[in-house]
Amino acid sequence: MARRAEPTPHVSPARTAISGAMISGTAIPVGPVRTCVGCRARVARSDLLRIVVVGGELLPDVRHRMHGRGAHVHPDPGCVDLAERRKAFPRALRVPGPLGLNQVRAYLELRTRNRGM
């Protein structure tokens, strides 16, 4: 009886992107990659701010440790505004209705002030 051939290992594009391989001449970030819900750019997780929803309010998860589903956005008011206009936060977090952005905007303002010093 003929011996069965072993399956060839298949490397998915996502796995290749995570390993930092070169794809069509552009460098892909090494490590976890996430998509900004505002501008839709794929960047390293460490370059994005994780947002979670608690009681209808969006909260910044600076340490990436809070429980629940998270959405990632650049820590830039422009990307946050774009995500709000596109209604990306409720869709990414899979929750109905409008969500308050007061805590996120306050965090970004404080972050901008502290970097300006």
TrEMBL record:
Q: Which domain of life, per UniProt?
A: Bacteria
InterPro entries linked = YlxR, YlxR-like_sf, YlxR_dom
Q: Name one Pfam family in it.
A: YlxR
Domain named YlxR: which ranges?
34-105
User: How is this protein named in the record?
Assistant: YlxR domain-containing protein
